[in-house]
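Task: sequence design from structure.
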């Protein structure tokens, strides 16, 4: 095995020193569960968690979701073929919820947004898309805008927030579209105020640019803005929404906007290979999510604020000299926690606490954010509603004390 030696400044250096291995040790190492496997197993088994997301669950549990399909769609109808039937019903439901003329189902949000912005570029004559460097296309899509769709991303600001109206108005180069991720996940699921958002949209209009919302999590923004979905979506020229991030569906996305745009988007969806033969399991799961989860999202957001405040109190009472809950009052039902420890150290403490106590405070992975600093995302869903503020404080105190013993 190649040994990895850590320098005093926290960097690592790979050496060629090889450790002696006992017979059978490699097989034992291969059989030992990974940190991720342990974390997910502890999350599944724990009696108390803040969220039970669907995607890590066993297949048997995921398939059981469709037992409710008959309550959202007539199962005696013919199955979908290339986007009709239940898929078409889902599209109409989304358009109605967002107050747009039409909507189109896509297998992924990556495809939906590329198609939307490619269509807008053809109409404006400008392939430049202004966006935040922490937005999804810049971080997670392997430069798909430029490599696949002929678009040119331009970065509006490097601050961990959405751009301001002044930054949009004074940006030094032209752009045909402004893309706003609501909420901006990698900055901490943050949102502007309603006034700030309307001013940003107005500033883009002054520049004769179209506005596209990356609304993967738009469903959960109503509580922060104090506005219904159709009013929020109505600010933009087009909106993308996800069905699995907030609604716990199997996957899928929708692009909503003017009927002429959506008609063109359907043609590009076919060209991109997104006109899938049958998609009824995903479409049904999305309809179930709209029926079950969408009405509860404001409740989750409200309780996330209770959880965040109690978590902050518990970590302080547990003796941690520094930490950060961000935002202090979450804008959605997700938020970040920052700690002054290496990611592998705090992850191990979190996993052991879950394994030994059956209470999972931090179910997600931890990522490094500089030397000796790491962060994680905390999700609050229906399971989290069972936690009182005192439950959260007690779990946070226990976690902090475990961490201080490392």
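Answer:
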């Amino acid at each position: 095995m190649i040994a990895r030696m850590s320098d005093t400044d926290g960097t690592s250096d790979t050496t060629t020193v090889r450790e002696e291995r006992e017979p059978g040790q490699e097989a034992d190492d291969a059989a030992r569960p990974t940190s991720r496997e342990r974390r997910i197993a502890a999350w599944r088994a724990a009696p108390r968690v803040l969220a039970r997301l669907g995607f890590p669950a066993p297949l048997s549990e995921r398939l059981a979701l469709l037992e409710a399909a008959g309550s959202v769609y007539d199962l005696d109808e013919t199955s979908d073929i290339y986007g009709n039937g239940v898929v078409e019903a889902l599209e109409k439901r989304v358009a109605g919820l967002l107050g747009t003329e039409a909507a189109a189902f896509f297998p992924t949000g990556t495809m939906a947004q590329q198609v939307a912005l490619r269509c807008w570029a053809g109409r404006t004559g400008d392939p430049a898309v202004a966006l935040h460097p922490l937005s999804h296309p810049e971080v997670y899509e392997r430069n798909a805008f430029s490599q696949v769709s002929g678009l040119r991303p331009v970065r509006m600001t490097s601050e961990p927030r959405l751009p301001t109206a002044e930054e949009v108005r004074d940006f030094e180069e032209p752009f045909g579209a402004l893309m706003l991720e609501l909420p901006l996940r990698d900055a901490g699921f943050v949102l502007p105020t309603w006034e700030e958002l309307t001013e940003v949209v107005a500033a883009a209009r002054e520049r004769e640019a179209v506005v596209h919302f990356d609304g993967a999590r738009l469903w959960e923004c109503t509580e922060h803005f104090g506005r219904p979905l159709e009013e929020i979506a109505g600010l933009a020229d087009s909106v993308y929404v996800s069905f699995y991030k907030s609604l716990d569906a199997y996957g899928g996305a929708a692009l909503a906007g003017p009927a002429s745009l959506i008609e063109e988007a359907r043609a590009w969806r076919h060209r991109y290979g997104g006109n899938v033969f049958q998609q009824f399991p995903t479409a049904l799961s999305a309809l179930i999510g709209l029926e079950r989860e969408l009405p509860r999202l404001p409740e989750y957001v409200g309780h996330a604020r209770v959880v965040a405040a109690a978590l902050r109190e518990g970590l302080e009472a547990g003796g941690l000299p520094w930490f950060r809950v961000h935002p202090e009052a979450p804008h959605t039902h997700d938020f970040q926690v920052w700690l002054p420890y290496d990611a592998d150290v705090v992850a191990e403490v979190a996993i052991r606490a879950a394994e030994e106590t059956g209470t999972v405070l931090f179910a997600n992975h931890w990522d490094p954010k500089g030397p000796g600093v790491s962060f994680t995302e905390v999700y609050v869903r229906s399971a989290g509603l069972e936690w009182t503020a005192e439950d959260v404080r007690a779990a946070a105190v226990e976690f902090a004390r475990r961490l201080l013993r490392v």
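The radius of gyration is 23 Å.
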